[in-house]
Amino acid sequence: MSLILKTLTSIQSFSNLLKPGIEVTTLAKRGAKRLNPYPKKRHPGWLPRPTHVLYKDDITPENTKFIKEVVETRFGKPDVGLGMQSKSISPLRNEPIEPQTEWKEGMRRTGVIAKKIGVYPMWLKDGTKVLSTLLQVIDNHVIRYMSPEEYAPVIQRNNIRNRLGCLIVGAESMDPQLFTKEYCGVFNESGVLPKRMLGRFLISPNAALQPGTPLYAAHFKPGDYVDIRGKTIDRGFQGVMKRWGFKGMPASHGVTKTHRRGGNIGSGGTKARVMPGTKMPGHMGNRWRVFRGIRILRINTKYNVIWALGPHIPGETNSLLYMYDTVLPTRKPSTAPHFPTYLPSIQENPVEEELWAEDVHRFDDPCIEFIEETK
Amino acid sequence: MNQANVTHLVSKLKFNIRPTPRRLKNKDGPPGRVLKIQKTLTALFEYERIELFYNRADEVRGYAERLISEAIRRGPEDHEMMDLANFWIIRKEFVHKLFKVYVPRYQDYSIAYTKLHKAPRLYPGIYYKRAVLELRGNPYPSIEQRNAHSNVLLHNLLLSEARKEYRMEKYKEIAESMNEREVTSQ
Amino acid sequence: MHGALKMSAAVGRVLSQQMRQSLKVLKSLAGKKNRCFSASVPIPKEGSVSNNEQKSVNRGKSADPLECRFMYPEFLPDPKPEYRNSLREKLERADMMARRSKIDIPEFYVGSILAVTVSDPHAPGKSNRFVGICIKRSGCGLRANFILRNVVDNQGVEVLYELYDPTIQKIDCLRLEKRLDNELLYLRDAPEEYSTFSFDMEPEIIPEGTPVPVNDLKVTLKPQPWLEKWERKDLKGVRDIVVNQKREMKAKAALKPWEKYDLMKIYRETIPEEEQKEIFAEVYSDLHNLEITRQKMKRQRTFIRPKKSG
Q1: Predicted-complex ipTM score
Q2: Are B156 and A60 within 8 A, CB to CB?
């Protein structure tokens, strides 16, 4: 009996030896390839979490007043009124550094953060009507500069040596009590109030700016081309007609229940599957999109407003967007822009209040008249 | 871009309104929505403080405010105003209350006439958001519970000490500058 | 509106030589019986001009900035909160005033008869003049526009003009009056005599200080088919609309009697009084000055007009 048992156990141990030592399970690679990958939120390592949960602190009214007073004495009164440049005091902001190099072709300078404030028509000198989007450069300050060696983005392209530095720009000053202590610490270097929105612009090291330098709408010139990056309007889950502009199907002639549907999404046979990238219903909008090569028609330097050509700038009214010199090779400026930025203290002649592109009809110009050609 | 309607002139409401109305879904459709608002509005004018679902409270709030502000603007002699009040307030006695009690009460208000509080959800029960809607200046005790000892909380103590120091420094600076001025004048 | 204009323009037949070269031309769709009337026949004036005290605004006496809202409705912004921004509205108003300083835009309402001269690169003489009745005013800010309607060579023609378009050289108000409705789109389905105006009409002068006259002319529509369901629109300027029983029932079912009581709907469609005051306080003095200069010009014109003697 015992012999039989022994042989059995030996056989079992032998079969154990036959099995592979490491258990290998193959996992399906999920979500490996997408035709249009969603842009991911890549939070930079150096930036602390901005907001915290606001609890009821039961601070007495006198103390609330006191906190407000301290903030105002340190940073100046908050930005009141119609988009005037805030008179925030920056303790570290000395006279801005003089630009050290002349502008050369291929140099990249910083962009600005602007607020889309509306759309209205303008007319060109040949009488055509164009729609223009108004973009207000609100309360922009340089927050930090990172040199090419220092700057390490979360996602890096391999084998390419980074030659561009990174400039952090902030827009719209806010009450520091709304943010975390760590986030407020980011603004110590520049000495401005904590900003609602931060933006990151890759620049050539020659275009670096001192933290605390204000940026104005006069950074650009009318006639320049810019790229604008913004988050499109969130339209929710939409059908193919709205999302992709499909035609739908007829309203009558025996059509039932398929007036707004997409129809066929693929053939049978060997390709009996839905091809990747097929246009179908789904979530529309709320994506970061860049519109390139948008021309500037007009600039108001008093209120820091830029009129850009076209009604199709991404984002709702009153949303913030990034604006920078275009990367399109044919639309890059041939003459020198304000480099590294427009600095009113350095400029010899202050800019006019209203700057217009050449072909735009000013509203206080006389009516447009066409002259008959004489043969 | 649409032109604003200029036939009616209205006073500005003192709270933030929703850009779009709520449908208040019901089997009768839009007339049912109106009936719901009429009922809640009448109840609000009767009891001055009511607890209900948040959506309905928020929707009715605008109508209550608008009705009071119209009553203040036009007065009881106006036929259209009387028509409006009779339409929204189902029971006649509260139309009188609107003109005799609420109009004098809210005549000089510079803030909203109503107040909306978030209330806890019922459990077990329907898990919708609940709210308390009240007319300001009502005779009931306040809903908000204030901390009676807030001034002895640690952060308040520290802040008030800092405030005193700050004030002292300010006074010192002022005194010094006064002294300097005296010295220079002498 | 633009879509409707384009669509009907596409359907439109060949027009006269002069009008073919105008910018946006509309042919009225219901043009079956238009041979009965010739273009030169002036409109028979049926209704007498009466003064409706409730609606009318005293001219030349706009002491209250709030009264400007009837005269200059385009200065009020779009009430939709998602489009509002105080700075944009301010800049837009400044641009509107800049344009108004260069061209005299007269006071007019829906129902007034206007003559508009536009510079047109394709017209013979590089400019084009059109006379017609204003049947609609819409849009706010710099997008403000109006539609003029007339009948030319038995053909209904509508032109949409932008109020602040710099190609407009001149706007003349030939007859200043109001009609019973805020939109006269039903003239498209009315006989041509109601929208026929002579191109060499003389401007009528109303004495200063008198309210804008309200013309209570009632129109009889042509038989169906119509462009819109006019029986549902509660039109005051149309005499007895007769439809079949089915349409009547449907119109009855589509009634929304509670809408006139919907306080929040009214509120969401308008700009509150406080904001209106703020807006008109900003532009009022400039508008008032422009108005005074216009009146001066008018007086001079009336004085210069030669009187035949002996």
Answers
A1: 0.91
A2: yes
